[in-house]
Amino acid sequence: MSSALNVLAIGASRNIGYFSAVRLLEQGATVTFLLRSPAVFDKDELIQRYIKSGGNARLVKGDATKQEDVQRAWDEAGVVDAVVFSVGGTPSFHILKGIVIEPHNLVTQCILNVLCTIPTYPFAPQPKIIAISSIGLTPSAHAALPWLIKPVYSALDIPHRDKVGLERVLAHCAGWTWTDAEPAADITGEGWMEREGLPASGALKHVLVIQPALLTDGKCVAEEVKAKGKDKKPYRVSEQELGGYTISRKDLAHFVVDALARWDEFENKRVNVAY
């Protein structure tokens, strides 16, 4: 991977986006973080080191639910090679609704803001976009889940409706055929396809949607496999439903960075990732 890689990270204050950003920084990339509270990294010695030694980590204060803040992140990042979009709300449990996030359309509205402000460079290619979604979103995908975790995914109806919105928006802009049910208007907003600045159907050229299995806080198996010199794959990746149980956030971050390095294999695909 080129040391000159310039990455915009949306939703990277923690978890997958954070772990991906750290890996990219360690490989010499520059990462611009859009953060509601840049203070989240005040005591993070690793990020602080990259801020102070060459400015490879850049912190932009802003909220991805506000289009003007996303525009400022693009402007401050400069010519971006890749976007890692891993927005996800903090879940809570509602006795009637199951697991909920606030707002309920957080992810969809944030990706719309990212795409409506994406720059067009006369001298550089359109940036690559990696977006984190989920397995089990559609009826057919839910049917492919291991039966033991189907109840968990049933309780995730509200956040998963938001992820469907994410995938629908990206499919439209990338010109992919959409065969699933349309997300409700309260997720995408009325007339979302006509939003000013949104790339026309097929105009978005470099997209990867990652659909991970149930996320865990486990170790990075990929690093252990590498350290032991074993010739085996630490996790599975497929355009087909894998029916897997879990994947750790650290291993998913490993795949994000690996996919950027092997982009020709994954461009314009939706892939499952699971153990």
Helix/strand order: EHEHEHEEEHEHHHHEEHEEHHE
> Order of strands side by side in the largest beta sheet?
3-2-1-4-7-8-12-10
Level-1 CATH class name: Alpha Beta
What is the CATH-assigned architecture?
A: 3-Layer(aba) Sandwich
- The biggest beta sheet, please? 8 strands, mixed
Protein name: NAD(P)-binding domain-containing protein
Pfam families: NAD_binding_10 (PF13460)
InterPro entries: NAD(P)-bd_dom, NAD(P)-bd_dom_sf
Domain NAD(P)-binding: 11-179
Would you mind describing this structure in some detail?
- This is NAD(P)-binding domain-containing protein.
- InterPro entries: NAD(P)-bd_dom, NAD(P)-bd_dom_sf.
- Residues 11-179 form the NAD(P)-binding domain.
- Pfam families: NAD_binding_10.
- With 275 residues, the protein is of the alpha/beta class.
- The protein has one domain (6-274): Rossmann fold.
- It is built from 11 helices and 12 strands.
- β2, α2 (45-52) and β3 (57-61) form a beta-alpha-beta unit.
- α3 (67-77) crosses α4 (106-116).
Secondary structure layout:
Layout: E1 6-10, H1 15-26, E2 30-35, H2 45-52, E3 57-61, H3 67-77, E4 82-85, E5 92-94, E6 98-100, H4 106-116, E7 128-132, H5 139-143, H6 150-154, H7 157-174, H8 185-188, E8 207-212, E9 214-216, H9 221-228, E10 236-238, E11 246-248, H10 249-261, H11 263-266, E12 269-274
Parallel strand pairs: 1-2, 1-4, 2-3, 4-7, 7-8, 8-12, 9-11
Antiparallel strand pairs: 5-6, 10-12
Helix pairs in contact: 1-10, 3-4, 4-7
